[in-house]
Design goal:
This protein has 410 residues and is α+β, with helices and mostly antiparallel strands. It contains nine helices and 19 strands.
Length: 410
């Protein structure tokens, strides 16, 4: 069920006469990056052209009047601390009585007057990336809805504000919409998310279209949209060159079972959630572990060691696998700078040395060690480029090459 938040819009122009068909001028776009560079896409010529084209199409659909870019059309980057949208975070814009002061007949008269005097009605757009926790400041959102939004793997909170101003200075439209951008969980893409560009240019174009569809539709009162998108993948020299243009394997993942087609046969893999087991070093219920492992636990001064286990099974081959690590949960992760495990959300200290194993049934097929906060000087990501998985293409975002040595939490 679509949620409608805050009845906040002006009654849009209806019954526009042929005299007003001189059109609306698209004057400017102001954007405010809270973090990163996602909204920098607005300065890309292809994106600004697409924005104008989309805006014109939607204006013809909802307002029955064309929109064209002004000869002096500008895309302006604003500093976030000077952001005029900061008031909108607290929804100070929500004065419906004030917005309703211009009646539909008066709007019609204003537009006709503009046409007869060869004046122009101007459209402007403001777009801002807001802190994700700003969603808590929406007064009419129930706590359950907020909780459901925040539980998703959210990428960003984007706010768009549209204003349509007559030549007299009267505001005909003053409307806002917020979009919660969440990660699409279904596609699995090899690579690392770009730390500054959250989505691809193509996804950004779809985001603009979705927002403008709400802003220009007088019957659409929705003020919060949730959109799913695949994160932008940064180009690199150690993953993408080896998978580029390679055939893809389609699979489904339902109730912990991965199903895919391999060499003409359907394969089934079952993955279990991570399990934890205390390692008891003293007393009657002492855990049976090798002496070498006990020595390493004592050497690392770990007082409450745990087995971290993840089981999986190849159903058709009748083979069971177990990934087992020895860890402890850091009690002061922020003070000691311990990274959080992305899968479990817990701050683990892994036992040093070759203390971790991978088992097939009862046979050990691998032993390994884990390093934390590791820089690999041979592996680099290129922050000025994106890797597009759909067609294995590389998109250059910036002319200046920005290399970054790959950092691994673990």
């Amino acid at each position: 069920m679509k949620k409608k938040i805050l009845h906040l819009f002006l009654i849009l122009i209806t019954g526009i006469s042929s005299q007003a068909q001189s059109g609306i001028i698209f004057k400017s776009v102001d954007y405010f990056n809270y973090s990163g560079r996602t909204l920098n896409y607005l300065e890309f010529p292809e994106i600004s052209q697409q924005l104008t084209k989309t805006l014109d199409s939607l204006s013809r659909k909802f307002l029955q009047i064309p929109i064209t870019a002004s000869p002096d059309f500008k895309v302006n980057k604003r500093l976030y601390q000077d952001n005029s949208l900061s008031e909108h975070v607290n929804l100070a814009i929500g004065n419906y009585a004030t917005n309703e002061k211009i009646k539909a007949a008066e709007k019609q008269q204003l537009l006709n007057s503009n046409a007869s005097q060869n004046a122009k009605t101007e459209f402007s757009l403001e777009i801002a990336e807001l802190p994700l926790n700003s969603i808590r400041q929406f007064p009419e959102l129930d706590s359950l809805f907020i909780q459901q939004l925040l539980q998703k793997q959210n990428l960003a909170l984007i706010q768009m504000i549209a204003k349509l101003k007559a030549a007299t200075g009267e505001l005909l439209i003053d409307k806002q919409v917020c979009m919660v951008l969440s990660k699409n969980k279904q596609p699995v893409i090899l690579g690392f998310n770009h730390p500054e560009y959250l989505i691809t240019p193509k996804s950004f174009g779809k985001l603009l279209e979705a927002g403008l569809s709400v802003l220009l539709d007088k019957n659409n009162e929705t003020e919060i949209l949730q959109m799913n998108s695949i994160p932008a993948i940064v180009n690199d020299n150690f993953i993408q060159p080896f998978i580029q243009h390679q055939p893809r394997l389609n699979f489904s993942n339902q109730k912990g079972i991965i199903q895919y087609l391999w060499k003409g046969a359907v394969q089934y893999l079952r993955y279990q959630e991570p399990l934890y087991e205390n390692i008891v070093l003293r007393g009657k219920k002492t855990t049976a572990i090798p002496k070498s492992l006990i020595a390493q636990i004592n050497a690392d001064n770990i007082w409450e060691p745990l087995f971290l286990r993840e089981e999986s099974r190849d159903i058709l081959a009748d083979k069971n696998y177990l990934l087992q690590c020895v860890v402890n949960v850091e009690r002061d992760p922020y003070g000691k700078g311990t990274p959080f495990n992305k899968k479990t959300g817990l701050p683990f200290n892994f036992l040093s040395g070759i203390s971790h194993v991978f088992l097939q049934d009862n046979d050990t097929i691998a032993q390994f060690k884990i390093k934390a906060n590791f820089l690999d000087g041979k592996k680099k990501t290129y922050l000025n480029q994106l890797y597009i998985a759909a067609d294995s293409s590389i998109v250059t975002l910036e002319k200046t090459v920005r290399e970054n040595v790959q950092h691994y939490d673990f």
